[in-house]
Specification:
heterodimer, A: 273 residues, mainly alpha, 15 helices, globular, B: mainly alpha, MetI-like fold, two-stranded antiparallel sheet, 13 helices
Chain lengths: 273, 309
């Protein structure tokens, strides 16, 4: 019995250590000069500000952060609006035809992005000729294909099942229009669902790599993951500086996680229930 | 009293009106709510898939494409790069997914036991890798596992090995590195699903089993696993789909190398379209190959998991 408990703590302890070690290493390395990082130094140093100023000097980190933030915020806002309208619509105004459409939409979850990449790229390349504002190398091109996802519609529909229909009736009796009911009653009631959905969407947009890699071409448009990826593939890497960049890139999502751990987990699990 | 009776009849009358008008509204308003999402998903998922099929019947460089019928599909079977990419992806799938799921199950069972202390700490620590972006952790792993990286340095210092392992540069070890990286990133994610499912299992089942003299292992295989079957199925399908789409890690840790030893199917599509001389037609054909694989695998897992619908 004791042996089993020791084993359990050992197993969990080792796994927990392995899980956080790369984080520790990343944070520690961001405070050390490149030479020390290569030597395997595991103690915090005093080089953080030097790394930071190197970083700001050599690459346009602020612009990439701004690009990522603008894209992630707009995507999250639009995706939540479109996804929740649809999830609400499919559940509240249920009909056989709508259920069929819903099931077809779910099929889109099976389509891997790699399969969409080529035709989407061609679509936006074609658009570039017609409407350059939403063509290749624009934020709009990054945002548009990720605005509506079957996952979010499904997520909102599942959660709408718990929304009390009496409130809709009450709204109608009070003379609210159908959209008014949605905006004034549903949205405020479902705050936690929106929070969870916002976290999932923000994170996936902030971390999105493949599509921005394909569609964003000029350096001025690049997002954080593209920047990190570029830094990571440099031939003579300045490890301290790169680790500082990664720390900064990870900070927003880590913050979201620690501040809203409950919503975060609820958002993940909620998608299955 | 009069008032209340009147009140009831009035609201009943209104109720009839409402049910009639609801039916009308359901038709029109309902569609208004869903239309934006339906149009966008058709435009950015289904329409491109039709385009991709059309493309897959053509071949040529850049925009200069000609119809070749099913030539591209025939080419798949003789294309050694494609076969390597599929083989690599399958190796990741067959080795990594089971390891991760078993590890996640074990961890969740341990974290679910009553007597455990520091539960929150362990859980948060093991879940933490999920907050990193795929690119960021890939770059970190690339440096950790470099020839002169920290992992080799520590293994050398502890005299576990006497010369550095080519974690990134050796065809075999590079695959191991990719598998280790994916396992690090996703085990905690899967664990959270199992943990929430475990919390819904009635404790008395375990108590009864204990009284009947069941061992811990027996309880795990006879109670926990069968009860968690639906969620295990769900996570294994998600992991399979994820692995078949693997891109960010391979791209940033090994760039598909050495040679093509770690190249995944998604990366091959990327290379065909944007790295080599672009052949969009053939790239679209490879895209369809992944879709077909995903459908087959999801179907198989449903079949294997069997009885529950």
């Amino acid at each position: 019995m004791i042996a089993r408990r020791v084993f359990m703590y050992l197993f969990l302890g080792v796994t927990a250590f392995v899980s956080i070690f790369p984080f520790l290493w990343m944070v520690v390395s961001s405070t050390n000069p490149s030479v020390e990082v290569t030597k395997g130094r595991l103690m915090p140093g005093t080089h953080l500000f030097v790394n930071l100023s190197n970083l700001v000097e050599r690459i346009d980190l602020v612009r990439a952060l701004a690009n990522s933030l603008v894209i992630a915020l707009i995507t999250t806002g639009l995706a939540l609006l479109i996804g929740s309208l649809a999830g609400y619509g499919f559940e509240i105004y249920r009909s056989r035809a709508k259920d069929a459409v819903f099931n077809i939409l779910l099929l889109s979850m099976m389509i891997p992005f790699a399969a969409l990449m080529v035709p989407l790229y061609r679509m936006f390349a074609w658009l570039s000729g017609k409407m350059p504002v939403i063509g290749i190398d624009t934020k709009a091109a990054v945002i548009l294909p990720t605005m509506a996802t079957a996952f979010l519609i499904f997520f909102f529909r599942q959660n709408t099942k718990m929304f009390e229909r009496e409130m809709i009736e009450a709204g109608r009796i009070d003379g609210l229009g159908e959209l008014g009911i949605f905006l004034r009653i549903y949205v405020p009631t479902m705050r936690t669902t929106y929070a969870a959905a916002a976290i999932i969407t923000f994170m996936s947009s902030w971390n999105n790599y493949m599509w921005p890699l394909v569609v964003l071409q000029s350096d001025a448009k690049k997002t954080i993951p593209l920047l990190i990826s570029n830094l990571g593939s440099s031939y003579s890497p300045d490890y301290g500086m790169i680790m500082t960049a990664i720390v900064i890139a990870t900070l927003p999502t880590a913050l979201v996680f620690f501040l809203m751990q409950k919503h975060f987990v609820a958002g993940m699990i909620g998608s299955v229930k | 009293m009069d008032g209340s009776i009147q009140g009831v009849s009035v609201s009943a009358g209104k109720g009839v009106c409402i049910t009639v008008s609801i039916r009308m509204r359901t038709r029109v308003t309902g569609w208004c709510f869903v239309i934006a999402a339906v149009v966008l998903i058709c435009l950015f998922y289904f329409y491109p898939m039709i385009q991709a099929f059309n493309l897959s019947l053509k071949s040529g460089v850049g925009t200069n494409l000609q119809y070749v019928g099913f030539e591209n599909y025939k080419r798949l079977f003789t294309d050694s790069n494609f076969i390597t990419a599929v083989t690599n992806t399958f190796i990741y799938l067959i080795v990594q997914v089971p390891i991760m799921i078993i590890l996640a199950l074990l961890l969740s069972v341990m974290l679910n036991s009553d007597k455990l202390r520091l539960k929150g700490l362990f859980r948060t620590a093991i879940f933490l890798p999920c907050v990193t972006s795929l690119v960021a952790y890939s770059v970190i792993f690339k440096y950790l596992f470099a020839n002169d990286g920290l992992v080799n340095l520590l293994l050398l210092r502890l005299s576990i090995i006497d010369r550095p392992i080519g974690w990134i540069t050796d065809p075999f070890w590079a695959k191991v590195t990719i598998i280790l990286a994916i396992t690090w990133r996703w085990t905690g994610y899967n664990m959270i699903f199992y943990l929430s499912a475990l919390q819904n299992i009635d404790r008395s089942i375990y108590e009864a089993a204990t009284i009947d003299g069941a061992s811990a292992f027996g309880k795990f295989t006879k109670i926990t696993v069968p009860l968690l079957k639906p969620i295990i199925l769900f996570t294994s399908i998600m992991s399979t789909i994820g692995t078949l789409q693997l891109f960010d890690e391979v791209m940033n840790i090994t760039k598909g190398g050495p040679g093509n030893a770690t190249m995944s199917i998604s990366q091959y599509i990327y290379n065909l379209s944007f790295k080599y001389t672009p052949d969009f037609g053939y790239a679209a054909t490879v895209s369809y190959a992944i879709v077909v694989l995903i459908v087959i695998f999801s179907y198989m897992q449903f079949k294997v998991a069997g009885d529950r619908r």
